[in-house]
Amino acid sequence: MALFDKIIQQTTERLYEDERMRSNFTDDEAKIVLGWAQNWITSQVRTAKTEAQAQQIAQSESTRVRQTVGTLNTLAAKPGALNLNQAIAALEPQVKLQQAMPREKVFKLLTEWVTLLWRNP
C-alpha cells in the first residue's frame, strides 16, 4: 500500500500545483473540487493489484479528472450565481450523460440531488 500512497501523492500533487486547474475558483470552491479529485484518484488507484496497474490507473484517472476539473474551472470564471442546468451541460462530455442508465440509478441520483438541495437551500 505504501507504494500506492506514493503514486497517489505524486498524482494529486501535480493536480494541486497546476494553476490552470484552480485559477478561477475561490479558495472554498478549489477545496471542494480538488478534494473531490483527490478522493476520486485515491479510490481508483487503491483498486490496483500491482504497482504497474496503480501507475496506469493513476495516469488514466488523472487525465479524466483534469478534463473535468478544467471544465469546472472554466465554469467558475462566470460571474455571479451558477445555473445548475448550464453546469450539468458543461460537464456532459466528461460524464457521458447521454448514455442510457438503469431507471433505478436515475432515480437514486435524482433523490440524492433533491436531498442535497433541501439540506443546503
What are the low-pLDDT stretches, counting only 5+ consecutive residues below 50? Answer: none
Mean pLDDT: 90
Number of strands: 0
How far apart, in Å, are the first and last alpha carbons? 40 Å
Percent of residues in β-strands: under 5%
Name the shape in a single word: globular
Give me the number of helical elements.
5
Radius of gyration: 16 Å
What attributes does this structure have?
121 residues; mainly alpha; 5 helices; 74% helix; 0% strand
Description:
The protein is mostly helical and 121 residues long. It contains 5 helices and no strands. It is 74% helix and 0% strand. The longest helix is centred in the middle third of the chain and has 26 residues, at 51-76. It is globular and about 40 Å long. The relative contact order is 0.11. The model has no long low-confidence stretch (mean pLDDT 90).
Short summary:
The chain is mainly α.
Fold blueprint:
Layout: H1 2-17, H2 27-45, H3 51-76, H4 84-95, H5 103-119
Helix pairs in contact: 1-2, 1-3, 2-3, 3-4
